[in-house]
Specification:
The chain is α+β, with helices and mostly antiparallel strands and 240 residues long. The protein folds into two domains: 101 residues, no CATH class; 124 residues, no CATH class. The chain contains two helices and 18 strands. Strands 5, 6, 9, 13 and 16 form a five-stranded antiparallel beta sheet that branches. Strand 10 and strand 11 form a beta hairpin. The radius of gyration is 25 Å and the shape is elongated. The model has no long low-confidence stretch (mean pLDDT 87).
Length: 240
């Protein structure tokens, strides 16, 4: 493959990764608390001869998350909780501690408050939040204190991070981090409201169409270059 084909192929590989990320954004357009991601690319220069001439390749450097909150919608469900501010709920699953902004909670068979994926929601003592059988009047104040008709039963633990971009996406709206979480001093919760995805579907679909066209153009360039090479070989190998 010629240098032109290699450059086009590196561009295709970067586009393929961007297509996967965009498709994931579109798939989560209705996922509560979902934060969209976008790839980061860089130019990688390679010297091709002793003159110092360089060829620019496309390098995938990683992704960046959109940290802007999604729209907050009223549901009226007392177990739907949204966060005002940069905070995250602390939850626990089989893999350990995780963090989420998806406040679409429910109760399991033992009365534990869990996420839609089954992770247990923790209180500010890192214990499960449990609603006793028969307790039906659930109230949550802005500071995260949870009460029923029988009194206070706990308080949501909200945390934040020095660098949110370092959070690792685990799927199911969960994230992990090697950073030490900080108590979210400027965050509050609102009961009966649910934060939606911050994905703008029209923007992502338009981006998907543009990416597909760019990918097809790169493929056409590779095909044309291969045909040119083949034609050159046939011409040069003809017996005069």
């Amino acid at each position: 493959m010629t240098t032109t084909g290699e450059v086009a192929l590196s561009y295709q590989l970067a586009l393929s990764n961007q297509l996967d990320i965009t498709a994931n954004n579109i798939a989560n357009v209705t996922t509560p608390g979902f934060q969209s991601s976008h790839p980061i690319f860089a130019e990688f220069l390679v010297s091709v001869d002793e003159t110092g001439e360089q060829i620019a390749y496309v390098v995938d450097k990683g992704t960046v998350r959109n940290l802007n909150p999604g729209p907050v919608n009223f549901t009226g469900n007392p177990l739907d909780i949204s966060i005002e501010g940069r905070g995250y709920f602390v939850v626990e699953n089989e893999e350990g501690i995780a963090y989420t902004r998806n406040g679409a909670f429910r109760l399991d068979s033992s009365g534990q408050l869990i996420t839609s994926a089954g992770a247990v929601v923790l209180n500010d003592s890192n214990d499960p939040i449990v609603i006793a059988p028969g307790e039906s009047q659930i109230d949550v104040t802005q500071d995260g204190t949870i009460s029923t008709e029988n009194g206070v039963i706990g308080r949501f633990r909200l945390v934040e991070f020095a660098d949110e971009q370092e959070l690792l996406n685990l799927g199911n709206s969960l994230m992990s981090s090697e950073q030490e979480p900080l108590e979210a001093a400027d965050s509050a919760v609102v009961q009966g409201m649910l934060e939606g995805s911050n994905v703008i579907s029209v923007t992502e679909i338009s981006r998907m169409i543009q990416l597909l066209r760019s990918y097809q153009a790169a493929q056409q360039l590779i095909t044309t270059e291969e045909e040119r090479e083949q034609q050159a070989i046939e011409t040069l190998t003809q017996i005069v």
